[in-house]
Each structure stands twice: as structure tokens, then as C-alpha cells.
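Q: Hi! First time doing this. I have a protein sequence and I read that you can turn it into a structure. Is that right? Here it is:
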Amino acid sequence: MWSVLTAWPVRKRAIVERQHMDSHSTKCALRRVRRQEQGQDLLEYALLVSLIAIVAMGAVNTVGNTITTVFWNVIASATAAI
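A: Yes, that's right. Below is the predicted 3D structure, encoded as C-alpha cells:
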């Protein structure tokens, strides 16, 4: 009987310590994941959108200049034919 009573606090302490270690390691793991990936997706999307915007502005500028040149060449040809 005496050995059961003395072993009880040791077992209980081991269970409590294991639960504390499990919850602590889980919290640390979640904190690590949150720290590592927080804002990365948003930053990647922002960089992608800015790159697309820069390329689009360059393309619109180039196409606009080409259309203007073609338009004025057509007008020049039409006035020369008249």
C-alpha cells in the first residue's frame, strides 16, 4: 500500500509534465509557422501584381505609339491620294 501512495505523485507529475511539454511544443511549432509564413503570400501577390502592372504599362505604351504611327500614316496616305 505504501509503494502505491508514493508512486502516485510521481506518475501524476510525469503525466502533467508530458501534457505541458506537448502543449508547449505545439505552441512553439505554431508560433514558428506563423512567424515564417505570415505575410509572405500577400507580399508575393503584391510583387506579382506590380510586375504585371509594369509590363502592362510598357505594352500599352508601345501599342499606343504603334497605333498612333499607323493612324497618322493612313491619314497621310489618304490626303496624298486626294
